[in-house]
Each structure stands twice: as structure tokens, then as C-alpha cells.
Amino acid sequence: MAYVAPSILAADFSKIEDEVLMMEGFGAQYIHLDVMDGTFVPNTTFGPELVERIHGIHHMVNDVHLMVADPVTNVIDFAKAGADILTVHYESFACEKDLDDCIDLIHMLGKKAGVSVKPNTNIEVLQPFWKKMDLCLVMSVEPGKGGQAYLDSADQKLSWAKKMNQKHPDHHVLIEVDGGINGVTGPIAVAAGAEILVAGSYLFGKVDAKERLEGLLAL
Q: Is 178 a catalytic residue?
């Protein structure tokens, strides 16, 4: 069975509390919060205030994805706001030591640490960090905006992550996929190794959102 993390990037922010609670009621276990700063990616979304606003109204995992040029400052601010998982991008760091230090900081703040790579980054760059990571986020679209089509190249990355878990049975890293997830691509991603499916436009605003979410949960 897959976990589902509805991405509020596709939600109606004028009634965000209702949207979040609706997805929890449908059975979602995670809520995915895409943070964009307009520098690391072209678009901007929201700050820690939104996480602080919603984190106390539900019982899902607050899964914060930081697509930002200054991950360290954002890690601190979003940890204070109520994030449970903080995922940073490999590409946000000048060197591997900086990423390693940031993972340590996330753990020091009492949160779980995720690391993500863009579609054009070789996922094997994550190998040195695997036994410190709690989550591996495979981007199946170019980060920065919702509604994009799933990239087949994600399958190989998911498969690699699954093999890494098999090589390290003493340390399981959650494998998450984000971008273009729907009723067709969801099963493909799960077969390749995904455990958490991030879905935004496939769920929010759809009259049959409950059935769609339940379909993903059943994978």
C-alpha cells in the first residue's frame, strides 16, 4: 500500500484549512508543502507562516519540500513552524559538506531529513548521504510549478533508491516521488520503488478526489 501526500500547491488557498482537512478525511497520511523562493526555482509560494497556520489542525505528517537557494535559514524557520520532514535539494548546496551539515542540523532540530534531486541530476550523488537520510524525494517533473507531465526518467531513480534500501536493511529511507502523479503514473512509480506519492492537481479541485486518493492508496 502506498502513502499519499496531497500537495497544497494545487489547493484553493482561500479555504486552505478546509482543503487540508478534506484530504485527511479521504485518508491521506502526509500533506506536502512546496516552498519556492523565486530564486532556486522561478516561482514563489509561501513562507513558514502557512505551515504554522495549518500544522495544528490535522494529524498528517507535515512534509515540507524546500526548493530554495538558502536551505539552512529555511530549515530553521520551517522547523519552528511545525514541519515534520524537511527535504532540501542537493543542488542548493555549494559542496557536499554543506549538505551533510544541513542534514545534521535538521536532525538536531528534531525533524526528519529528506534530500531531493532535480530530473537532470544523477541520483547516485545521494549515495554518500544515504545512511543519514530519512527520505529520498525523486522529482518526476522539473521543480517549480504544478501540472507537469511525469518524466519516465524518474523510474530509474526510484529503482536505484529501492536497491539502496535493499543494500542497507538496517536503515530504511522512505522513497517519495513528486510530479505528474495520477491514476496511470502512480502504479508505474510504485512498481519502480516509490512508497509516497505526491499528488496535487490530480486531487485538488476534483469532484471525485476521494476516489482518486483511495485509488492511489490501494497501490
A: yes
